[in-house]
Amino acid sequence: MNVNGPRTAPAAPATPAAPGALTVAEAAARLDGFTVVDVRTPGEYASGHLPGAHNVPLDRLDEASAALTEAARRRPLLIVCASGVRSERGCGRLAGLGVPAATLEGGTGAWAAAGHALERPAGARTPWPMDRQVRLAAGALVVAGFLVGLAWPPAHWLSGLIGAGLVFSGATNTCGMAALLARLPHNRPGRDAVPFEQTLTRLTT
Fold first, then answer.
1. Cα-flanking dihedrals φ and ψ of residue 172, to 5°?
2. What is the C-alpha separation between 114 and 109, in angstroms, rounded?
3. According to the model, what pLDDT value does residue 7 have?
4. FRET partner for 176 with CA separation of 20 to 30 A, picked from 53, 134, 137, 160?
5. Helix pair angle (130-151, 156-172), 10° resolution
6. Distance between CA 73 and CA 70 in Å, rounded?
7. Statement: residue 13 has pLDDT above 90
8. Taking a C-beta distance cutoff of 8 angstroms, is the pair 101, 91 a contact?
9. Looking at the DSSP assignment, which residues form a beta bridge with residue 93?
10. What is the pTM of this model?
11. Which residues contact 82 (CB under 8 A, 6 or more apart)?
12. In this predicted model, what pLDDT tens digit does every residue of 40-89 receive, in sequence order?
């Protein structure tokens, strides 16, 4: 007879906790303790990323959820983008999947401004950060709608639609234009880029 009562199963290893956000100084001091995930486009990633960062574009986080869950069991995740906007969005998406992650405040821009090195392949292209690409595309469409509208007034609706889209983007913290621009050739992986499937394997090993 077991007088001590039923035995309880050993607890599963806890997933390391990640803070909500890290400053550049905090991240630099303990970078080796994180699995760094860069959620920018492959083109942006190739232009310069934090040492050891894995590229999982924001629009492919759901595909990588199993690998990221496994990686987070070993070390906390640090999510990085150009300025911190997409990485914060990525952290929110991962939180919905039960995967804790921290965001780097200011992104790679703040990291480089603080004097820290970025890794980049030799001869890699250097596309603009996505937020700058979005501003250029949105501004160009607004101007085009205004100018064409001088001769053909219905074209002014284009400017109005772009403005409404920007309001919706700000209110929902999403950006459909960024998703479209991410498909352009200069934002796609280069010939020497690590295949996405290989990145997932590296996250789990």
1. -105, -5
2. 9
3. 52
4. 53
5. 150
6. 5
7. no
8. yes
9. none
10. 0.80
11. 40, 44, 107, 108, 109, 129, 130, 131
12. 999 999 999 999 999 999 999 999 999 999 999 999 999 999 999 999 99
How far CA 28 is from CA of 24, 70, 85, 109, 110, in Å, comes to 6, 24, 19, 14, 12
Tokens of 187: 């934002």
In a 10 Å sphere around its CB, with 0-12 CB exposed, 13-18 middle and 19+ buried, how is residue 149 labelled? Answer: middle
**And the tokens for 176?**
């459909």
Q: CA-CA distance, 46 to 202, in Å (whole number)?
A: 17
Alpha helices in the chain (DSSP H): 24-29, 42-46, 65-74, 85-96, 107-113, 130-151, 156-172, 176-181, 196-203
CA–CA distance, 103 with 89 (Å, rounded to integer): 9
In angstroms, what CA-CA distances link 147 with 89, 154, 203? Answer: 35, 11, 49
* Contact indicator for 15, 101 with CB cutoff of 8 Å: no
Long-range contacts of range 129-134, CB-CB < 8 Å, 24 or more positions apart?
129/40, 129/44, 129/82, 129/83, 130/40, 130/41, 130/44, 130/82, 130/86, 130/178, 130/181, 130/182, 130/187, 131/82, 131/83, 131/85, 131/178, 133/178, 133/181, 133/187, 134/175, 134/177, 134/178, 134/181
Please, are residues 64 and 195 in contact by the beta-carbon 8 Å criterion? no
